[in-house]
């Protein structure tokens, strides 16, 4: 309370200072006018006028800042309630360090200091020798022994789980697999399971299951429901796909889970309990978090480094409670079963010896299509051989069982696309049934075996554990980077097909933006028209179907052969077309929704599919091309520009459009206030500017989730500030064609010194010769060497040596070689009032570093972008490396799915390729005084091979297959963009060690920067011939959300009564971020956060109103019971725990 008052006074103080500076500026301005009395000379008058105009603009901007301060002051006063109870968001614009009590996001790290129990995977990595000795029959393991009486008291209970792994696209497209295999597999499943209730099966991919469901009749659907109810068929995980866990962003991971779970609930009325992820190439705790949050109780994982599997097998920790690294409570625990052996096929699931297990895959009986590579074929089970066969199998079961703490055994029975023919069901079930019967008839063997599902297995496991009073060990950490054998590390797929990894995130951002705007539009329409939606003319159902299709296309792409870049070329094209198609459809929904929301007179709304009133300012012509800005023709008549801010924060953004005029001004359509602009050349070639098109940049301040309307108009010649250029190339002075711009060349004396750019937050120095960054200095005084280098990796060259491919990274022994080019790069330095940048044109890439001359967090980071083209190369991978003087030792941090940070240790005992990790959105290096954070807009592989270094793989072109079944190299490279923001921050205090590993988070500033990078503003424009309708801004929120609370999504739910139509219910997802409290940006980010876990959603989203709010599980399957006392209270206080995602089922008024 006292702190609050002091704080209010502080804001008051700032306000007064700002006001005084305003008056001071007025004074200065008057003096300027006195000094330059109006000249008779026209030019002089023009100049003065323009200067005056700029001053006025600056004053206006100052005024607007002051207005914001006043609003914040008012809010903070309002929220300091007299009884000391804080009703909701607690406003703070000060630094986190002022607080006496740690705020929730960073309190977390404090709490964790005591939570050091259990296994920490980083410690396991420190411990393991990674020596890969030959283990005998179990090559990567050890000899397993048993006495034989271990099961006398507690008989061995074996569950054989039939499964068929169906990739939604890999060697064939999703549709081709469905036609050729999947539909037959599901048809057979239905017949076979109905014939014999001892037969069971599990199924994971809802994308396939729902497609099959659409094609079967009601009678078959009823049979499916009966089988599910009887426990014969279990849908496991229930995601749309079995997603990749390295490259997928948590938005998409969750979204594909929601899509699958909602489908299951609507069509089958069931909820999944068990996860099944047998093929993703490494496993992430983010996935475990989402499954737990969705209500699942257990999960199975498979592709884990063979050395880790062996270690866990020895320790009997293959079953564990997987806990989030940041969680000090058991809240996030989920029971996880790790399969012990090499693969999920039958040879590697019955026990340690594949030559024996293969003989129990009866699909490989002589005369069938598949055989055993160990050259001992299966035998049909007969009366003569049943004893010998049963004992042989039991020996494998018993050995496998010794790796687990309970006598319950999970034995998957299946492979990729298995059970396509009913004969396969017959051979497997009749032969196994004979073995089961034999066990049954011989109680002295103490074994009971039968077909089962995961529910059967985990049910038995939990019963045995609890009756024995045993609990499973706790484990923290992740399972990257995966190796299946030798030094074959799967770190190549972190980068393979980077063009599509980028497109994935473009679609993801577009889907989120459209979901939110669609939900807001539906609420507005209801408010305007009542519940009768048809009155609006807004095609809600049609739009909802486009949204649904986009959700499913994004979901499909999270499959572990899609976003990973490990599918065949035609399949990649199929994915690309789906992403592109949905991107186009989402634009229509966005344009149409914005149109309705902005119209002052709603009766003027009409939906015309052939010509939208609003159009995107950029065009994409095909899935494999880059967006092109449309040229907006300007005249004296203003054109409408509409900008949507899809983030929950007020943002100051630089908007770039392409116009046909060298001079233009942009005004806010309501206030008439003109915005600062900068006109730059559009470079048709590195040294040739377009004579007809120009880039107009302006600074827009856009409130959270707002649609803002601007007017852009042709201006008198010479009125808009233009970018000036300095061009240099070593050896020759390049001719530059840019008549409308001031272009200079570096003088001989300037060539030796670095080129420098600065804004009010930092200064950077780059090499004049290459344009590449060398050093960075913050205005606080912190200086860091930060050199950008480009390098090549090649692959192994010796014959019979495995080489890099889509999955594997197997670099040549020489390591990375510096990028060199026979031709010196053309370096172009641009300087202007809004941004300045340095662009270098190398043969294989164009690299740009841009600095924004802006207050607020946009000016605090450096934008780094590349356009890469390595199509002329063979077996090469291009890497961008930052070399700094940060003393991070062998430790750095990279994110997991954009959800959390994970500490990484570069280990000399591991080969180079093992020290590469997935980076979905961020990585940082730090020492006691500073932190360098790199935020990315796409996923890629990252490493810190030496102290101070951070390197990212930009693209890879590989001519050969790497023997993981794909059967081709990766040679469909394209012109590929990548975008980053680089942040240098002051830091105090070291990392807090938890169980030997430090739990670290991004700083608030890094979170905000990442949000802005991943969710750029969306620019729309009206056609040149459209009449000027009256449009007004759409401002749904009164203020920004707290800066540690991310609005993950507002997703309109399907109507249960009328599937395919939007319901009035919206799934609202809020992710409260954990953040680092040791970074000390100066000045601190201006934002608010809640000092408590408890927040009031009505306050956060005011003036939006919720008719009902009900907390739910992450995929909306389990609604929390409404608390009757709370129900009466309209202002619902709800808890948002740091690091956690909270889901609510809401109805907006
Ligand atoms: Zn697969």
From TrEMBL:
Cofactor: Zn(2+)
Protein's pathway: Protein modification; protein glycosylation
Membrane topology: Single-pass type II membrane protein
Major subcellular location class: Golgi
Keyword RNA-binding: no
Keywords assigned: Coiled coil, Disulfide bond, Glycosidase, Golgi apparatus, Hydrolase, Membrane, Metal-binding, Signal-anchor, Transmembrane, Transmembrane helix, Zinc
Coiled-coil segments: 42-69
Classification via Gene3D superfamilies: Glycoside hydrolase 38, N terminal domain, Glycoside hydrolase family 38, central domain, Golgi alpha-mannosidase II, Golgi alpha-mannosidase II, domain 4
CDD domains: GH38N_AMII_GMII_SfManIII_like
Keyword Lipid biosynthesis: no
Matches recorded under PANTHER family: ALPHA-MANNOSIDASE, ALPHA-MANNOSIDASE 2
Function in brief: Catalyzes the first committed step in the biosynthesis of complex N-glycans. It controls conversion of high mannose to complex N-glycans; the final hydrolytic step in the N-glycan maturation pathway.
Protein name: Alpha-mannosidase
Organism: Gouania willdenowi
């Amino acid at each position: 309370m006292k702190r609050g008052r002091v704080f209010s006074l502080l804001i008051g103080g700032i306000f007064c200072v700002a006001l005084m500076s305003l008056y001071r500026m007025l004074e200065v301005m008057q003096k300027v006018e006195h000094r330059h009395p109006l000249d008779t000379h026209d030019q002089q008058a023009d100049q003065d006028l323009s200067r005056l105009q700029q001053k006025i603009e600056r004053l206006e901007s100052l005024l607007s800042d002051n207005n914001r301060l006043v609003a914040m002051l008012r809010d903070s006063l309002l929220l300091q309630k007299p009884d000391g109870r804080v009703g909701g968001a607690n406003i703070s614009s000060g630094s986190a360090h002022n607080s006496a009590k740690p705020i929730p996001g960073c309190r977390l790290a404090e709490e964790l200091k005591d939570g050091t129990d259990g296994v920490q995977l980083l410690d396991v990595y420190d411990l393991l020798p990674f020596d890969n000795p030959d283990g005998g029959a179990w090559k990567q393991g050890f000899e397993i022994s048993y006495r034989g009486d271990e099961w006398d008291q507690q008989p061995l209970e074996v569950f054989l789980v039939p499964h068929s792994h169906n990739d939604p696209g890999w060697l064939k497209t999703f549709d081709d697999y469905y036609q050729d295999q999947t539909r037959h597999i599901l048809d057979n499943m239905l017949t076979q399971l109905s014939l014999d209730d001892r037969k069971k099966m599990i199924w994971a991919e809802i994308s396939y299951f729902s497609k099959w469901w659409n094609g079967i009749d009601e009678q078959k659907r009823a049979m499916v429901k009966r089988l599910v109810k009887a426990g014969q068929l279990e849908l496991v995980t229930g995601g749309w796909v079995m997603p990749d866990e390295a490259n997928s962003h948590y938005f998409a991971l969750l979204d594909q889970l929601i899509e699958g779970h909602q489908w299951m609930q609507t069509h089958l009325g069931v909820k999944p309990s068990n996860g099944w992820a047998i093929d993703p190439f490494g496993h992430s705790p983010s996935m475990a978090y989402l499954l737990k949050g969705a209500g699942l109780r257990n999960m199975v994982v498979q592709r884990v480094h063979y050395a880790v599997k062996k270690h866990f097998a020895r320790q009997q920790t293959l079953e564990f409670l997987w806990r989030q690294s940041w969680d000090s409570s058991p809240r996030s625990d989920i029971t996880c079963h790790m399969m012990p052996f090499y693969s999920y096929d039958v040879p590697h699931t019955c026990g340690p010896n594949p030559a024996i297990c293969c003989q129990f895959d009866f699909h490989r009986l002589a005369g069938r299509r598949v055989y055993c590579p160990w050259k001992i074929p299966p035998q049909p089970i007969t009366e003569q051989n049943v004893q010998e066969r049963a004992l042989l199998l039991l020996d494998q079961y018993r050995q496998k069982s010794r790796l687990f703490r309970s006598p319950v055994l999970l034995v998957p029975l299946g492979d990729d696309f298995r059970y396509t023919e009913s004969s396969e069901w017959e051979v497997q079930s009749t032969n196994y049934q004979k073995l089961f019967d034999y066990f049954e008839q011989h109680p002295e063997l103490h074994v009971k075996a039968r077909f089962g599902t995961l529910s059967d297995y985990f049910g038995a496991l939990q019963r045995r554990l609890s009756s024995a009073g045993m609990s499973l060990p706790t484990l923290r950490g992740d399972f990257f980077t995966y190796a299946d054998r030798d030094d074959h590390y799967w770190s190549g797929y972190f980068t393979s097909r980077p063009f599509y990894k980028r497109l994935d995130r473009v679609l993801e951002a577009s889907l989120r933006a459209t979901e939110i705007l669609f939900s807001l539009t539906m609420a507005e329409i209801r408010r305007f028209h009542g519940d009768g939606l048809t009155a609006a003319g807004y095609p809600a159902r049609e739009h909802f179907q486009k949204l649904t299709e986009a959700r499913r296309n994004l979901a499909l792409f999270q499959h572990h052969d899609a976003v990973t870049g490990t599918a065949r070329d035609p399949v990649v094209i199929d994915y690309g077309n789906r992403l592109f198609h949905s991107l186009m459809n989402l634009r229509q929904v966005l344009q149409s929704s914005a149109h309705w929301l902005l119209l002052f007179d709603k009766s003027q709304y009409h939906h015309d599919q052939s010509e939208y009133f609003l159009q995107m300012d950029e065009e994409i012509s095909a899935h494999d091309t880059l967006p092109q800005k449309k040229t907006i023709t300007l005249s004296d008549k203003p054109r409408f520009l509409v900008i949507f801010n899809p983030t929950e924060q007020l943002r100051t953004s630089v908007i770039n459009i392409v116009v046909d005029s060298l001079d233009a001004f942009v005004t806010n359509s309501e206030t008439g206030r003109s915005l600062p602009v900068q006109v730059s050349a559009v470079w048709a070639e590195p040294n040739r500017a377009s004579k007809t098109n120009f880039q107009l940049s302006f600074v827009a301040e856009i409130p959270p989730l707002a649609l803002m309307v601007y007017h852009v108009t042709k201006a008198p010649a010479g009125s808009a500030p233009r970018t000036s250029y300095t061009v240099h190339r070593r050896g020759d002075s390049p001719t530059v064609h840019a008549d409308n711009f001031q272009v200079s060349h570096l003088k001989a004396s300037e060539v030796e010194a670095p080129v420098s750019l600065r804004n009010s937050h930092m200064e950077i120095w780059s090499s004049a010769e290459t344009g590449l960054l060398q050093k960075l200095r913050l205005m606080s005084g912190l200086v860091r060497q930060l050199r950008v280098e480009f390098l090549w990796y090649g692959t192994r060259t010796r014959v019979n040596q495995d080489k890099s491919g889509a999955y594997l990274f197997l670099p040549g022994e020489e390591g990375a070689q510096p990028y060199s080019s026979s031709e010196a790069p053309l370096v172009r330095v641009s300087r202007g009032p809004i941004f300045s940048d340095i662009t270098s044109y190398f043969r294989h890439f164009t690299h740009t570093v841009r600095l924004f001359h802006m207050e607020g967090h946009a000016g605090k980071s450096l934008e780094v972008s590349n356009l890469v083209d390595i199509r002329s190369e063979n077996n090469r991978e291009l890497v961008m490396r930052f070399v700094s003087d940060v003393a991070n030792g062998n430790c750095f941090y990279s994110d997991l799915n954009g959800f959390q940070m994970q500490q990484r240790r570069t280990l000399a005992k591991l080969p180079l390729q093992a020290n590469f990790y997935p980076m979905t959105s961020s990585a940082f290096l730090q020492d006691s005084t500073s932190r360098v954070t790199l935020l990315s807009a796409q996923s890629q592989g990252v490493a810190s091979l030496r102290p101070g270094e951070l390197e990212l793989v930009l693209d890879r072109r590989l001519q050969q297959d790497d023997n993981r079944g794909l059967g081709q190299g990766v040679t469909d490279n394209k012109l590929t963009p990548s975008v980053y923001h680089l942040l240098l921050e002051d830091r105090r205090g070291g990392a807090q060690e938890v169980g030997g590993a430090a739990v670290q988070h991004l700083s608030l500033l890094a979170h905000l920067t990442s949000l802005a990078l991943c969710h750029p503003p969306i620019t729309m424009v009206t056609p040149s011939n459209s009449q000027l309708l009256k449009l007004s801004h759409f401002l749904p929120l009164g203020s920004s959300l707290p800066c540690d609370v991310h609005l993950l999504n507002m997703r309109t739910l399907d109507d249960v009564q009328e599937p395919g139509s939007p319901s009035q219910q919206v799934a609202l997802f809020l992710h409260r971020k954990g953040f680092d409290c040791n970074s000390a940006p100066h000045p601190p980010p201006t934002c608010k956060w809640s000092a408590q876990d408890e927040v009031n959603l009505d306050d956060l989203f005011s003036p939006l109103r919720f008719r009902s709010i009900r907390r739910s599980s992450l995929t909306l399957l389990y609604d929390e019971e409404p608390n009757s006392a709370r129900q009466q209270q309209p202002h619902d206080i709800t808890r948002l725990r740091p690091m956690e995602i909270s889901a609510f089922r809401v109805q907006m008024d």
